[in-house]
Every structure is written in structure tokens, then in C-alpha cells.
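BUG: 3D viewer hangs when loading the predicted structure for this chain

Environment: internal workstation, default settings.
Expected: structure renders.
Actual: progress bar stalls at 90%.

Input used:
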Amino acid sequence: MSKTDKPLVLSPHLVSPKGAELSEFEFAMIVCWNAFTRWLEKGASATDAGDMTFIDVVVLHQLKHRAKNKKVADICFVLNFDDVHVVTYSLKKLVAAGLAIGEKVGKEVLYRTTEAGEAAIENYRQIREQCLMSNVDESMNAHLRELANSLGNLSSLYERAARSASSLR
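C-alpha cells produced before the viewer hung:
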């Protein structure tokens, strides 16, 4: 970056002398995250399954994953949610909407999608193909795979930083 190129960052006061690239990435990630969650919510609302937050959408799709009943703790683990209450509340909403069902097995409640949930997921898949995938250039696939790998590595970086920060208290 030349001296005339200013990094596009959310918080210039946080830019490190080690490089502005991480600050640029963080700003891009915030903007991308907000666009992504907006897409999840708008895509789901187009299915006529009712108003759902992005958490409701990802929890519903996680319930379908591998057609296997899920515990709240398993959903939280896979989605990297620390707050069990957020997922529990989402499950309560999905059950009330008739998209999921919980069955008590021993001391645990296992959740799965209902027929209505399966139909909503299929509708979402069709809307995703029409609105999102129709705009994806297949030449992007290799780059997207590399980007997904990089995001996984960055997730580890942020997890380590979070653990370090929590030990400072």
C-alpha cells in the first residue's frame, strides 16, 4: 500500500503498524456479514415460512443436516454459538411455527424438522438458486474454497485472541 492509499477501515484508531490489512478485512467482514444475514432473512421470508432471524434460518438448516435429531448443545457447537439461550429461543420459535419438533429422550430434548420445515427448506433452496446462485460465476468456486479455508484460519486467530482477552480480566 502506498502512502497515498488510505485503507478502508471502520476504526482507523485501531489500525496497527503491523499492517492495515486486518483492519480492512474486519470492515469488509462486518459489511459482508450484514449483507449475508440480510440475505438469510429475506430469502427465508420469501418462503412464506414467517419472519425468521438469521439464527432461526441457520438453526433450521442445521436441524435438516444429515437428517439426524439434534441436541441444543450439538447445534451450538457446530454453529459456534456460546449463548445456549439464543439457540433455545430460536428452537422454541421454530417449534411454535410448526417447522421443528422436539422430542424428549431421557434427559435430553432432540430436535428435528417437521414436514412444514422440510417444505420451507426446499422453498428456500429454490429461492437461493434463483436469487443467489444465478449470480455466481462458476470460475469463483476455487477462490471461494480458498476464502472459506482462510476464514477458518481467521476464526482460529479470533478464538485464540478471545481466550487471551478473557484471561486478562
